[in-house]
Amino acid sequence: MSNILNGKVAVVTGGSRGIGKAVSQKLASLGANIAVIYSGNDSAARNVEEYCEKNYGIKARTYKCDVSNFTEVKETIAKIKTDFGTVHILINNAGITKDGLAAMMSEEDFDRVLEVNLKGAFNMIRHTAGLFIRNREGCVVNISSVAGLIGNAGQCNYAASKAGLIGLTKTIAKELAPKGVRCNAVAPGFIVTDMTETHADNPLLKMIPLGHMGDVEDVAEAVSYLVTAKYVTGEVLRVDGGIAM
Ligand code: NAD
After folding, report:
1. CATH of the domain at 198
2. How far is residue 150's CA from residue 220's CA, in Å, rounded to a whole number?
3. For 8-60, what is each residue's pLDDT tens digit?
4. Is the model's pTM score more than 0.85?
5. Does residue 13 have its Cβ closer than 6 Å to ligand 1?
6. Which residue in 238, 218, 196, 194 sits closest to 18, CA to CA?
7. What is the CA(158)–ligand 1 centre distance, in A?
8. What domain range includes position 51?
9. pLDDT for 141-179, tens place per residue?
10. How far is the CA of 178 from the centre of ligand 1 (A)?
């Protein structure tokens, strides 16, 4: 199992911290070469690159890119192709929140969350699909959220983007299955990261059947399952301690 992804090239968006960092490290531990896409913190991204190369003997590179920008994504995938030769695995993990009640939310806050979380995933798929089709092999995992399954008051933009990712996942799964390409989603619940720092006293936490928040490794484990499960496509795997069942 440990080298099951030897020679594969995985692109992880938002791979510099939180869930994306854990996913990058997990895929590297299985032998994949890793292209980390990030938006802000250069040194955090480089730390992930160094950690993966040193500990797992694979090749890792970092790319600063705003996934919501169609042209930047196109150029970044071209660079990754030059550096790595191709792409086999795409993890659409980059995501943001700009919470507020729908009745008071600004147009900018609604649009920006949709642009990063949903259009960002489309942009990435749009510019890697040609490589997958040429390879007759490919695997996409979109990081959705339980908010996309059951909604969450104060997160209409976020929940809409994450529900949209599920529609995107199932459509890509249907479009590209004949080409040997799979597409699945993971729907995490409350996971301990920078994004959930402010949720410590959220009353929803008391409703988690397993009684506690999840770790980034719990999500990374689910992603690695979907990356290696060769007969699974169009699936949405909840990693949520049971909160959305
Ligand atoms: P995080 O804020 O720690 O990390 C987000 C990452 O996305 C960062 O690396 C950041 O650089 C990157 N990013 C943000 N905007 C970007 C852009 N425009 N272009 C490129 N990269 C960009 O968040 P996290 O908690 O690790 O969440 C990762 C994913 O998991 C997100 O999609 C989030 O919605 C989802 N998720 C998280 C939780 C949770 O409880 N933490 C629950 C459900 C879903």
Report:
1. 3.40.50.720
2. 22
3. 999 999 999 999 999 999 999 999 999 999 999 999 999 999 999 999 999 99
4. yes
5. yes
6. 194
7. 11
8. 9-237
9. 999 999 999 999 999 999 999 999 999 999 999 999 999
10. 31
